[in-house]
Amino acid sequence: MADEPTTQSASPMSEQPPAKKANPRVRVGLTILGAFVLVVGAIALLRWWLHGRFIESTDDAYLRADSVAVAPRVSGYIDELYVVSNQTVKVGQPLLRIDERNYRAQLSQQQATLTAHTADISTADSQILQQQASIEQYRAQLAGAQANTKFARQEAERFKGLHEQGVETEERYEQALNQLDQNETAEHSASASLLIAQRQQVTLENQKNQAQAQLQAAQASLDAAKLNLDDTLLRASIEGRVGDDTAQLGEYVQPGTRLMSIVPVQAIYLVANFKETQLRRMHIGQPAKIRVDALDRVISGRIESFAPGTGSQFALLPPENATGNFIKIVQRVPVRFRLLPPAEVADRLVPGLSVTVQIDTRESGH
Question: Which domain holds residue 286?
Answer without folding.
Answer: 55-66+266-360
